[in-house]
Amino acid sequence: MRNEFCIGVFAFPKSIVFCCLLLLLSSQISAQTENESFENAFGLDETQSMDNKKSNAESNKYTGQISPIRKQSLSGQVDVNEDEGNHDDKDETKKGVEEVSFNAVNNSDQKNKPENEITLSDGFSEKIAGRRNRKYARYDLSEADRYAPHSDGSVLNYVLTETRLKEIRSKFMYWYVDKGGNNDDGDYQREIQASMPQVHKNFNFQLPFFGLRFNYTRVSVNGYLEFTDPPMHYTYPLVFPVRNWPKENDPSFIGIFFSKCRIGKIPPTDIDQRRPGVYFRVEEDLQNRADQFGVEMRERLKWDIREGMIGAEAFDPKHAVVVTWKNVSFVGGIDNSLYKTNTFQMVLATDEVNTYVIFNYLNIQWTSHTEAGGDTVNGEGGISAFVGFNAGNGTGSYEYEPYSQTWMIRDLTRRGCVNGFPGRHMFKIDDDIMPSAFGSRPQRSCNLGY
Ligand SMILES: *[C@@H]1O[C@H](CO)[C@@H](O)[C@H](O)[C@H]1NC(C)=O
Ligand SMILES: *[C@@H]1O[C@H](CO)[C@@H](O)[C@H](O)[C@H]1NC(C)=O
Ligand SMILES: *[C@@H]1O[C@H](CO)[C@@H](O)[C@H](O)[C@H]1NC(C)=O
Ligand SMILES: *[C@@H]1O[C@H](CO)[C@@H](O)[C@H](O)[C@H]1NC(C)=O
Ligand SMILES: *[C@@H]1O[C@H](CO)[C@@H](O)[C@H](O)[C@H]1NC(C)=O
After folding, report:
1. I need a labelling partner for 356 at 20 to 30 A (CA). Which of 133, 212, 327, 434 fits?
2. Where does the record place Polar residues bias (predicted)?
């Protein structure tokens, strides 16, 4: 559908924007036609898809580690021919997925590579494939919510305007995408399944947390990031530090919605058709980034945190981690309970001395898995999820009151109010855990500004 709209716009940059605006208006999510493969849609040839698989396998060996720098055509984006002479109009028309971001690509970009060639997290390395087109991430269109951005696809020395900053900061959820990247999964963590509840991720930096420093994490479907091993069993309500430590493990973790979760389902009527599951993205070396996405991530995070925490006025993030649990249901429910889902997101920012975390609660439809006493249809009752932090080894914990393990957990989506958003909560977590002063007034609602 999109294709028809955009035919022939290649020569008329203004109409590209216009055309895409039309598209956006006409359909909130004009996702790629379901049965059209990514390779088809974006004209990636056979060789490339094979390479994709190979490099994907490589990067999977050490998920989370930066993969070797390569150039690759990827993701939903502008298609700019490096070689105008070889431009095949017919081909373009057929494949026809020409779309341009509002920050339209400078033509000179076609010839220049960004000075700072920085690979993004796993799944975002790039490589040049013959004389194929360069693909530009167009994540800044709302439709592009689904496509992985990458530094190569950006204007050189991108300058972020006030207007643009305001626009990106007006969105509640940080970016997460389920298309593009090495295997067209975007940030989506395909490895996480019922049989494999977590994936290990290495960082090329130090993440100070609760008095310790970690250069890795484990992303769990169960609503937390874990750094050390849990005990064999939990009893409810959960108590941290684990009472029987050191006989039993006392894990170190950041719990945004610590509960037994399983990946849910969405009906075709859901507006946001991004796949249910867990999304993970690391953005490193933000202070030296000149690509659009790097700059926007840095500035968005910087100002959200500076304005969200007292004492963070000079914070300049170096590294960011965005983990999103989209449409996760609870363990123990009947089949239909898979449509009872929660969506929440954790954004970590560190300069390797200070660490801040943002909890964005978009949607909470259930509170408790069945082992914790929740019912099998709605996941309600019993002891609700734990929200908070544990240092590990019996050294300390922080439970987020009054929400954690109480019925008030539902209020997480309406309270918090950090940066003016209902549902946004913020903490400083490098040493002792400190909640944002703007978020620690649970009895108030958000329409008071903060
Ligand atoms: C692709 O899907 C659409 C509906 O989603 C269907 O009408 C069409 O026949 C499908 N085409 C192919 C080639 O499967
Ligand atoms: C676009 O290219 C022109 C000519 O190379 C250059 O002078 C200008 O600074 C570039 N603009 C941006 C935003 O990169
Ligand atoms: C993480 O730190 C340990 C030692 O603290 C080191 O041996 C290891 O190589 C580091 N890993 C990465 C990916 O930097
Ligand atoms: C899936 O999550 C979205 C928010 O990301 C929400 O609007 C939607 O209602 C959820 N769908 C189901 C079936 O729970
Ligand atoms: C906990 O203690 C064990 C054994 O002393 C040690 O190996 C581990 O690194 C410690 N973990 C944390 C998070 O302090």
Report:
1. 327
2. 57-68
